[in-house]
Amino acid sequence: MTGNHENKTITRRRALAVTGGTAAAGGLVVVGYQSAFAGTAVEGEATASASATSTGGSCMTLMTSVTEGPYYLDGALVRKDITEGKSGVPLTLRLTVVDATDGCTPVPGAAVEIWHCDAWGYYSGYTTANPGGSAPAESEDGSTADDDTYLRGYQIANANGVVKFETIFPGWYTPRTCHIHLKVHTGGQKEDGTYEGGKVNYTGQLFFDDDIAQEIFTLEPYSKHSGTYTKLADDMVYDDGGASSGLLTLKAVKKADPSKGYKGFLTVGIDPDAENTGAGSGGGGGEGGTPPGDAPTGAPPSDVPSASASASTSSSS
User: Could you give the CA distance from residue 237 to residue 242 in angstroms, rounded to a whole number?
Assistant: First the structure.
């Protein structure tokens, strides 16, 4: 993709992906959008066949944990809306956490943490890191977002294991495709506006269909970031496994107008006894959270405050 983005019409995409994979201690991902979006109507929504749904009361084991990447920060706030005024195409993300070792039963109380870049490829805490290509400085976006906390947050799973986030469609940075990072924590508790204690059971990344992403990137403010976009097939983390590799099912809020936003969903199966922080693991992260040589450059400021310090001004649910 270059600065002259090709204007493509979004077609109905495959909703669910192939089954397969082997059991892993770190975590597992399964398809299960029906339970996550029960009762939610989206224009143009198709009925999808779930080749990777659970059968015989057992859960499909599909995906191992991957790296947390170089831009993780502790202390994200517990809140539903993580945008803080950052502009972009609206994205409602709905994930269902289930116990893959116990017939895909819900995991109420699981804390799902996500973080991702803004429309121009900048992460909070790393706002001077060059996203590659040509993009305005992060400070030019005109928002009032906190440079240390935007587009990061936790949600606590309800009785059905469901969490919901309101955010924006992420942009991209060289050399990665468009993605969202996530961790699933259990055993801790909400404290001072963030989540404390427990352990990380699963570390993963969520991905987006190329055609939808490239359509989004023709729109403002995404179109101000020009350069070479990495497609799924060329990404260093995504392994072409579809939903089994974190590919979200996306449904347009208004099919004829992608600027109105999308709903994305996936069921995340975990082993509550496992632990995988993703720090120092392979694939696009760098040892101990250090960016690889071809990742955007830059470092978080040395005086980054604790996110909990501003918890009282943030919404939570």
Answer: 12
